Amino acid sequence: MTTAAAGVAGAWIDELFSSWQGEGLWLGCRQLFLRFSGCNLRCAYCDTPSALERQPGFRSGAGRRPNPIGVAALLAILEEADLAAHHSVSFTGGEPLLQAECLLPLAAGIKARGGRVYLETNGSLPDALPPLLPHTDFVSMDWKLPSATGADSGCNHAEFLRLCRGKPLQVKVVCAAATGDDEVEAAAAGVAAIGRDIPLVLQPASEPGGGWAVGWGRLAALERICAPHLQEVRIIPQMHRLLNLP
Ligand code: SF4
Fold first, then answer.
1. pLDDT digit string, tens, across residues 92-118
2. Which residue from 11, 19, 56, 138 could staple onto 118, CB 3.0 to 4.6 Å apart?
């Protein structure tokens, strides 16, 4: 256990499991998913309602464990799950950066064991990011649109992205039925202001019963809106939904 972990309160976890990355540029990479509980946003299309609030316990493999759990115990579980057989450990949620105090010793411990850290975030908490960045290998940031969060969420996505420059990085924009042209163009322009080379992924929102909230024609129209701003715009749906993976 790292010295940094001493005195850190335990982490609140929603689930811990091994699967394949189902979204974005790292699609298909085998990862250990560490889903943190709690989120500061309430997106209309949220597909992880169980992670919005802290629960007394969490799923870990085939069993359940109590919350909160110490960093040393989490590292032991990750090691037992064979870090070396995985591309990386995904910190996801919920919003993992709400538990930044735990993330730092956890990420340092993963790196010390030869693993890599993949941060999936809503990009709303740039102040929590700098200490974690030296221990982070990949960043996947959602650019939250006003139509998704109910209003202007106040997320300083531009500042978050600026901090991440130099890391392998992607920005995802989830496209739902309510998504407007103007807000997507504003997101693309906002990403471009930090770097035209940052890849942007348009991801159709998945519907609870399967299928996408928007069709291919609409996605193609949104792609045409973003393309003049950025060097790389892709349309990638959530593959784990299509394949019925965890
Ligand atoms: S940021 Fe993610 S976890 Fe939080 S409400 Fe939005 S979709 Fe759900």
1. 999 999 999 999 999 999 999 999 999
2. 138
